[in-house]
Specification:
Chain A: This is Nitrogenase FeMo-cofactor scaffold and assembly protein NifN. Chain A: Keywords: Nitrogen fixation. Chain A: InterPro entries: ChlB/BchB/BchZ, Nase/OxRdtase_comp1, Nase_comp1_CS. The complex is a heterodimer of chains A (476) and B (534). Chain A has 476 residues and is α/β, with parallel strands linked by helices. Chain A has three domains: 143 residues, 3-Layer(aba) Sandwich (Rossmann fold), CATH 3.40.50.1980; 114 residues, Rossmann fold (3-Layer(aba) Sandwich); 178 residues, Nitrogenase molybdenum iron protein domain (Rossmann fold), CATH 3.40.50.1980. Chain A is 46% helix and 13% strand. Chain B is α/β, with parallel strands linked by helices and 534 residues long. Chain B is 45% helix and 12% strand. In chain B, strand 2, helix 2 and strand 3 form a beta-alpha-beta unit. Chain B starts with 17 loop residues before the first strand and ends in a 23-residue tail after the last helix. The chains are: A alpha/beta (476), B alpha/beta (534).
Chain lengths: 476, 534
């Protein structure tokens, strides 16, 4: 493996403000404004538009040289004023970029000043809610940006519910907060589960409509849908919060527990059999209601599907990469299927990732020892792939270069997916998601081997890039 | 503050940037070339982006982004710029600055990253792009690059592209400044004023400036010049290598296609090496013809002029049946153009004219006053001209101007789709060539596929109301009957033979206002004027 210490080659993460947009865009009637230079907003809009195939409007305070030298106060205020004027949003998420952070703008103070000047109060019904979140690009990744934004949203709304002395009015609702951005199809699937089981729930953020909007008679300025604001404000009154994801810290769930005594539970993102099982089991525990027959049947159907394909998948070596919790859940599923996730990697720096992955491997297949990588770029992944020799790649579309060079299939999942359609409709959660994903993986393997019986024998072909010599030698 | 005066509902400060071409009004009072308005959701990117898109197609260079990960992450392999050899440019390199680098400065990390990458890749050149925070924390890129350059004995060139230091155009300039450092003095006396070579024995040399070989465009253009006996030293920067760029000053002439990004470099080469330049476009029959003829005229060789005419005759005859077929299907449709650069916008106006289509909206991200003047001369009265447009303006304009098709980039695509309007990508993402003769065929076919897909009929009926379905069926029947009663030629696809027959019947050229085809290519007989189908 090539050892690099200084240069990042082909990044496997996006930056913090991008994550914040993924969160803010799941809130009803919300606009996002990046405090920084114009390019940040354009690039991230392009990235998201490409993935979701939807118009994605993100404003920018368009800092120029003057703003960078003298501070971005006036630009930010002007940006806010213009966004209100044009989009008439109920919420504006203001995420900082590295520029605004480095020049040291005190964004919360500027917002306070702006609200005073414009006579905007804190009333949820009457006023525009402005949520600042600090997301410099040089800190962590889009995953942390997403988590931070959710935390900021919950804090803003939870603190705005009125006077502190007021008694809590329990609402019998369940808060659901994933730590990783799910696909709109995933969110739709989960909402259906909660509708059937919990009756009343609050799902934050809800991108099921905002990032996958139906073609309507007209084009609304802000996509319809998203978590309703009164529901976010109601989150402190819920009977419990369920966090989806156990690798990254769920700041919003923690906050609700610590500040508002809403008990928080966390389960892995429900991808695969056992993760979906623990998801339903946890729901039964929290809600005290039985699992709907529909899902028990789906579970049976998933088992049936797993039996059908077990021979095609047994021992197939897979490399899985993407966001920490998502990869963790996918890995669990692959292990359940008898596959060998020889390489498990995340682009984000995540402290608990390796330990969590090792734990689940220990639990399902203790003889097996995967390479686990954390905070990597695609070049490192490429080197690791050369060593581990997987027969299939599972991850976002940026892995296509590696897959192509080695002539192995890539099953696209996660973000970004720029080179195929349907990213917004990829379903992985729940028993149904597991079945769909199982079929995709099996078919990709069958396609690659073009046989119904033999195990996969894909040998690495010409290996692009600099690891070439070692790779060719390795094959000989 | 919201009022409904003006062409579209927009912010007071945005109003000077939107205008309508009016009859008898020569001066177009359009504001442009300013920084984007805060909160207006400009479709523009930043200085870094401008520099990156221009330089990125240099295939064998290391393009190292000195900054936090985002800047490199979103621009990874961003252009569909093809390479005939090495593809180092498709790899994304970044110093991935972290908080500590911001606090203590990133110079050391940068210099180590350069050493590391040069050791691994052995590139002929390294471009180091500066980003916003590099400008703020004040890393001395110049000196780091200079030291690295001496150490490794290759050019390590700083690209001064701090995102906030202007807009995309400033990035173009930063890229050109970087290219300037790669271009070597030619072996001949560079101060001698270049005169057109009339001698038929010496092969004249040209550079193509401002073609980025998206989808392989350049590969359809170079052979045309080669057939005319001209050597193309380098195309900047599409499918170029550091070595080829270093020889650029040996050229007798520069052809500038993307004027927005490359005129600055062309002017510099004229001043420094006495190489004159001509503006050219390789999109659409009219502009390709013009480019070949202008070049032949410049060199003044009769043989070359003949060769140009021969190429044009053969190629136009070859592609015209398909152009005419599509033209029959799309003429009278209304197009909206929103481009990054003005040169592409201008050439598209002519392209649409060749298809009998009308341009109803035209805008750019980086146009300057002269560009908009030229645009205003080229469009019909009533066309809306807009600078640095935003999504809400574009959406309202598309509806108000009743556009049938929009040509733009990815961010605009979904605005059009949501409004039920056909879309054609003329940006980084396209995977088929649009330049040259076969490229124009690709373009018109895409226009046809975009406009003629039955999906738009379904989209027009977004809400399912049983009665509405009934009435739509009825009107559909009426339309069908009308078509059947009319000319047979208008009904969909035609047999090849019929098309050939039509070419000679149709007066294609006169309808394409100002098309510069030789009389023998003009079709003799004239049919009735294009009736608008809108």
């Amino acid at each position: 493996m090539t050892k690099r210490n200084y240069a990042t080659v082909n990044p496997c993460v996006m930056c913090q403000p991008m994550g914040s947009a993924l969160a803010f865009k799941g809130i009803e009637n919300t606009m996002v404004l990046y405090h920084g230079s114009q390019g940040c907003s354009t690039y991230m809009r392009l990235h998201l538009a490409h993935h979701f195939r939807e118009p994605v409007d993100i404003a920018s305070s368009s800092l120029s040289e003057k703003g960078a030298v003298y501070g971005g106060r006036e630009n930010l205020k002007k940006g806010l004023r213009n966004v209100i004027n044009r989009y008439n949003p109920k919420v504006i998420g203001v995420a900082t970029t590295c520029l605004a952070e480095t020049i040291g703008d005190d964004v919360p103070a500027i917002i306070r000043e702006f609200k005073e000047e414009e006579g905007i109060g804190d009333d949820l019904e009457k006023d525009i809610i402005i949520v600042p979140v600090s997301t410099p690009s040089y800190g962590e990744s889009h995953v942390s940006g997403y988590i931070k934004a959710l935390d900021a949203i919950v804090r803003t709304f939870a603190e705005k519910t009125g006077d502190e002395s007021a008694e809590k009015v329990p609402n019998e609702k369940l808060n659901v907060i994933p730590v990783e951005s799910l696909s709109p199809a995933d969110v739709r699937e989960l909402k259906e589960v909660f509708e059937l089981m919990a009756g009343d729930y609050i799902f934050l953020p809800d991108i099921s409509e905002t990032f996958d909007a139906p073609l309507r008679e007209d084009l609304p300025k802000i996509a319809q849908g998203g978590t309703p604001l009164f529901e976010i404000a109601d989150m402190p009154n819920s009977q419990a919060s369920l966090g989806l994801g156990t690798v990254s810290k769920n700041l919003a769930v923690n906050y609700l527990e610590e500040s508002h005594d809403v008990p928080g539970y966390s389960v892995p993102i429900p991808i695969g059999l056992s993760n979906t099982d623990s998801f339903f089991t946890e729901l039964v525990k929290i809600l005290g209601c039985p699992i709907p027959v529909k899902y028990l049947q789906e579970r049976g159907r998933l088992l049936d599907a797993m039996v059908d394909v077990h021979k095609y998948l047994y021992g197939v070596k897979a490399a899985i990469y993407g966001d920490p919790d998502f990869v963790f859940s996918l890995t669990t599923f692959m292990l359940e299927l008898g596959m060998n996730p020889v390489l498990v990697a995340t682009g984000s720096k995540s402290r608990d990732f390796e330990a969590k992955v090792r734990q689940i491997v220990e639990k399902i297949n203790p003889e097996f020892e995967p390479v686990v990588l954390n905070g990597i770029d695609f070049d490192t992944l490429n080197d690791a792939v050369s060593q581990c020799n997987p027969e299939i790649l599972i991850g976002n579309s940026n892995g296509r270069y590696i897959a192509k060079a080695r002539n192995i299939p890539l099953v696209r999942v996660g973000l970004p997916i720029h080179d195929r359609v349907g990213a917004q409709r990829i379903l992985t959660v729940g028993y149904r998601g597991a079945m769909e994903f199982l079929d995709r993986i099996t078919n990709a393997i069958l396609e690659a081997t073009d046989t119904f019986t033999a195990p996969v024998q894909a040998e690495p072909t010409v290996h692009a890039g600099k690891g070439k010599e070692e790779c060719v030698e390795g094959i000989r | 503050m919201k009022e409904k005066i003006g062409i579209v509902d927009t912010l007071e400060e945005r109003k000077p940037y939107i205008t309508r071409k009016q009859e008898k009004e020569q001066e177009i009072p359009l504001a442009c070339d300013n920084n984007s308005l805060a909160g207006a959701i400009s479709q523009r990117a930043c200085v870094y982006s401008g520099a990156r898109v221009v330089l990125n197609p240099v295939t064998d260079a290391i393009h190292l982004v000195h900054g936090p990960i985002g800047c490199a992450g979103y621009t990874w392999d961003i252009r569909g710029a093809k390479s005939s050899g090495i593809e180092t440019n498709r790899t994304s390199f970044s110093t991935d600055m972290k908080e500590l680098d911001v606090v203590f400065g990133g110079e050391k990390k940068l210099s180590s990253a350069i050493d590391e990458l040069v050791g691994l890749y052995h590139p002929p050149v390294v471009f180091v792009y500066s980003t916003c925070i590099v400008g703020i924390i004040g890393d001395d890129l110049e000196s780091v690059c200079k030291t690295a350059s001496q150490k490794h004995n290759i050019p390590v060139i700083p690209v001064k592209s701090e995102g906030f230091k202007g807009n995309k155009s400033d990035g173009y300039k930063a890229a050109c400044d970087a290219l300037k450092k790669l271009i070597k003095k030619p072996p001949e006396d560079p101060t001698a004023k270049k005169a057109p070579r009339s001698s038929e024995t010496i092969k004249p040399k040209i550079n193509i400036l401002g073609d980025f070989n998206v989808a392989g465009d350049v590969w359809l253009i170079k052979p045309l010049f080669e057939k005319m006996g001209i050597e193309v030293i380098v195309s900047m920067t599409g499918d170029s290598t550091a070595e080829a760029i270093s020889r650029a000053a040996e050229a007798d002439l520069n052809l500038v296609q993307c004027s927005g990004s490359m005129t600055y470099l062309a002017k510099w080469m004229q001043m420094e090496y006495g190489i004159p330049y001509l503006n050219a476009s390789f999109f659409g029959i009219e502009d390709i013809s013009l480019a070949l003829r202008k070049t032949a005229d410049y060199f003044g060789s009769e043989k070359m002029k003949q060769q140009a005419e021969q190429i044009l005759e053969t190629e136009i005859n070859r592609i015209m049946p398909e152009i005419s077929r599509v033209r029959e299907r799309v003429k009278g449709k209304r197009a909206a153009i929103y481009m990054g650069g003005p040169a592409k916008a201008l050439t598209l106006i002519k392209g649409f004219a060749e298809l009998g289509m009308e341009v109803v909206i035209i805008g750019t991200q980086t146009g300057k006053k002269e560009d908009y003047e030229q645009i205003s001369y080229s469009v019909r009265d009533g066309t809306v001209i807009v600078d640095d447009a935003n999504p809400l303006e574009l959406a309202e304009l598309l509806v108000k101007q009743k556009a049938d098709l929009m040509v733009a980039g990815v961010k605009e695509r979904f605005i059009a789709y949501k409004l039920g309007i056909a879309f054609c990508d003329f940006n980084h993402d396209r995977v088929v060539e649009f330049e040259g003769f076969d490229g124009f065929v690709n373009f018109v076919q895409e226009v046809d596929a975009s406009i003629s897909s039955p999906v738009w009929k379904a989209v027009r009926q977004r809400t399912l109301i049983p009665e509405a379905v009934e009435s739509e069926n009825k009107s559909g029947k009426i339309e069908k009957a009308a078509v059947a009663a009319g000319s047979e030629k208008k009904s969909g696809r035609m047999e090849k033979a019929t098309v050939k027959e039509m070419i000679s019947e149709e007066n294609h050229a006169t309808e394409c206002k100002g098309i510069l085809l030789k009389p023998k290519f003009l079709h003799q007989k004239s049919e009735t004027a294009v009736e608008s189908q809108v």
